[in-house]
Automatic annotation (TrEMBL):
PANTHER family: NADH-SPECIFIC METHYLGLYOXAL REDUCTASE-RELATED, OXIDOREDUCTASE YDHF. It holds the Pfam family Aldo_ket_red. This is Oxidoreductase. CDD domains: AKR_BsYcsN_EcYdhF-like (cd19092). InterPro entries: AKR_Detox_Biosynth, NAD(P)_OxRdtase_dom_sf, NADP_OxRdtase_dom. Gene3D superfamilies: NADP-dependent oxidoreductase domain (3.20.20.100). GO terms for cellular component: cytosol. Residues 16-292 form the NADP-dependent oxidoreductase domain.
Length: 300
């Protein structure tokens, strides 16, 4: 069993690898098959699961909840549930949405959290994130919604996703935030230069990382940069006797901000690759070799 780790001083304790479920609606599995995947994840020590209200066209939380209803109470109690809200998609499940937009009003945040709780069949979310920065976000109103959900015992901790440093700082000035869930991998290195990782390290808040394998491009993409990174990952993996995927996760785990990658795959082997990275510490030269392959040039 992997020990749980804190995202922030007063933040939630999650497994160091988080299982992402955004594609679950496309797996075509029965509730029993979904439960078995949850059980296998837990057997690996991955007890935290990353959701969002919009995943699967607003269907994944209910699919997960249906599977979870088959589980024993002891299994349910071992899980940590993360969800996100704030995006309104155009989908048959929400016919009132005329155009994709964001909604960070208190009414929507509270309603979304309550809908997630009902769909998942749980009494409390361990962590709720604002999914995208909303140009119309009123930080005081968001903080009020967070406080109401916390005081009602419906959500334990809060954070953001995809926030730039200034927007994160704004919301954090109104309410304690536990993480910023961001995209980060060798092909998307903006957080190194835009202040995101520096800010989180300064605040001693650990980022969560979505798309750590660039949606699979790090392993099977056919672009020029993708092929360079694949070759570098293969070289490093050969030296360490592990898979290229494990090296890709270890590249993230080497960062001093101590991120928690979100590994999203129906293949339990993919989660094993991610968990194996917890035992691999890349040298600075290994790390730079992968960065250089992605950038197509030496470090500055």
């Amino acid at each position: 069993m992997l020990p749980l780790t804190s995202l922030a001083a007063d933040g939630p304790r999650l497994s160091p690898i988080v299982a992402g479920v955004w594609r679950m609606a496309y797996w075509g599995w029965s509730a029993q098959e979904r439960l078995r995947w949850i059980e296998q994840s837990v057997e690996l020590g991955v007890t935290s699961f990353d959701h969002a209200d919009i995943y699967g066209g607003y269907s994944v939380e209910a699919l997960f909840g249906e599977a979870l209803a088959l589980a024993s109470p002891s299994l349910r109690q071992r899980l940590q549930i993360v969800s996100k809200c704030g995006i309104k998609l155009v989908t048959p499940a929400r016919p009132e949405h005329r155009i994709k937009h964001y909604d960070t009003t208190a009414a929507h945040i509270i309603a979304s959290a309550e809908t997630s709780l009902r769909a998942l069949g749980v009494e409390r979310l361990d962590l709720l994130l604002v999914h995208r920065p909303d140009p119309l976000m009123d930080a005081d109103e968001v903080a009020g919604a967070f406080a109401a959900l916390r005081d009602a015992g419906k959500v334990a901790h809060f954070g953001a996703s995809n926030f730039a440093p200034a927007t994160f700082e704004l919301l954090a000035s109104r309410f304690p935030l536990s993480t910023n869930q961001i995209e980060l991998h060798p092909l998307h290195r903006a957080p190194f230069s835009d202040g995101t990782l520096d800010q989180l390290q300064r605040l001693r808040i650990r980022p969560m990382i979505w798309s750590p394998l660039a949606g699979g491009a790090l392993l099977s993409g056919d672009g020029e940069a993708e092929r360079r990174v694949q070759a570098a990952l293969a070289r490093v993996a050969g030296r360490h006797g592990c898979t290229a995927a494990t090296v890709a996760f270890a590249w993230l785990l080497r960062l001093p901000s101590r991120p928690l990658p979100v590994a999203g795959s129906r293949r339990i082997e993919a989660l094993r690759d991610a968990v194996a990275a917890l035992q691999l510490t890349l040298s600075a030269q290994d790390w730079a070799e992968i960065w250089q392959a992605a950038a197509g040039r030496e470090l500055p």
